[in-house]
């Protein structure tokens, strides 16, 4: 049995007067975010931006930058002020050569980031594949679980999602590979993952799908994921999340290092949006917010849609 994690520390800022009030606030935030995601999924609004807050020492792009409480708080506030709809807090790197960390280490890493993110009033997500960490994050105020393990590494994650009512991102690729047609391979994976989630009591309107660009895929397969987005959107009618920001694929395409990949990230995000993504996960929030607004506005013009 996994070890129990301690409850989150009380919020140091004007906390809700009771646990009931906190639950009401969290439910309101989750429902509002769900409505926003649904609008973006339908194409009625621009894709939402999920800003990345890595509290890890070894993430590929910003490892070690936000490991202290003050720096994590500044980053959370910046993400919110720059217009992100979601702050995604993660305490374990999932780059190819990274190692898993103990529950207590991951919890300690994300504690301050979660608290600071909730204080901003932004919807908060926790990037983890561990049910105990997800449960802890929801207790701390998170309304979304970004499971890079696709709820397959530990089936208990399905129970956490069902019991908490949190929105859940099911990502492909942390432990899976693709063979043959990319669209077919992703579809087979998502069909089973969705079936298992629904069987555990997860509400269908809570599920978001992520093809896992950069995870256990060749460059050709990563590129094919973009082509697969419309088919996945049509087949499952569930919102799609795409994370391409600063990834090594963009480095190989452009020859740029991690810090020089913003233009490539914006280009890829624009393509993802045009292909039907409802959420774009990014490091550079403000430029992506602007890019998604313009992409949506110009898409409305070219399609003859008027809002």
Molecular structure report:
Belongs to the DHPS family. Residues 47-293 form the Pterin-binding domain. Pathway: Cofactor biosynthesis; tetrahydrofolate biosynthesis; 7,8-dihydrofolate from 2-amino-4-hydroxy-6-hydroxymethyl-7,8-dihydropteridine diphosphate and 4-aminobenzoate: step 1/2. The protein is α/β, with parallel strands linked by helices. It has one domain (20-303): Alpha-Beta Barrel (TIM Barrel). The chain has 10 helices and 8 strands. The chain has helices spanning 19-42, 69-81, 103-119, 131-139, 156-164, 182-199, 219-236, 248-254, 262-274, 285-303; strands at 48-54, 86-90, 123-127, 144-147, 167-171, 207-210, 241-243, 279-282. It has an 8-stranded parallel beta sheet. Helix 4 links the parallel strand 3 and strand 4 (144-147). The chain starts with 18 loop residues before the first helix and ends with a helix.
């Amino acid at each position: 049995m996994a070890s129990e994690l301690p409850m989150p520390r009380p919020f140091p800022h004007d906390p809700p007067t009771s646990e009931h009030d906190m639950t009401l606030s969290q439910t309101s935030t989750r429902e509002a975010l769900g409505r926003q995601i649904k609008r973006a999924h339908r194409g009625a609004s621009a894709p939402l931006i999920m800003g990345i807050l890595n509290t890890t020492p070894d993430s590929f792009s910003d490892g070690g930058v936000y490991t202290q409480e003050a720096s994590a708080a500044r980053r959370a506030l910046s993400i919110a002020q720059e217009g992100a709809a979601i702050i995604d807090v993660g305490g374990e790197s999932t780059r190819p050569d990274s190692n898993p960390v103990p529950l207590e280490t991951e919890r300690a890493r994300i504690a301050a980031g979660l608290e600071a993110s909730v204080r901003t009033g932004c919807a908060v997500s926790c990037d983890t594949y561990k049910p105990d960490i997800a449960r802890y994050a929801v207790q701390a105020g998170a309304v979304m679980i970004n499971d890079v393990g696709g709820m397959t590494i530990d089936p208990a994650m399905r129970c956490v999602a069902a019991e908490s009512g949190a929105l859940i991102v099911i990502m492909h690729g942390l432990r899976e590979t693709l063979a043959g047609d990319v669209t077919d391979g992703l579809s087979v994976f998502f069909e089973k993952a969705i079936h298992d989630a629904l069987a555990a009591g997860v509400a269908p309107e809570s599920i978001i799908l992520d093809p896992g660009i950069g995870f256990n895929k060749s460059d050709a397969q990563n590129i094919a994921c973009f082509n697969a987005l419309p088919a996945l959107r049509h087949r499952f009618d569930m919102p799609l999340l795409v994370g391409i920001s600063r990834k090594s694929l963009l480095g190989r395409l452009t020859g740029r290092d991690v810090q020089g990949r913003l233009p490539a990230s914006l280009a890829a995000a624009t393509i993802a949006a045009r292909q039907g993504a409802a959420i774009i996960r990014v490091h550079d929030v403000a430029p992506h917010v602007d890019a998604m607004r313009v992409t949506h506005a110009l898409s409305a013009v070219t399609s003859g849609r008027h809002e």
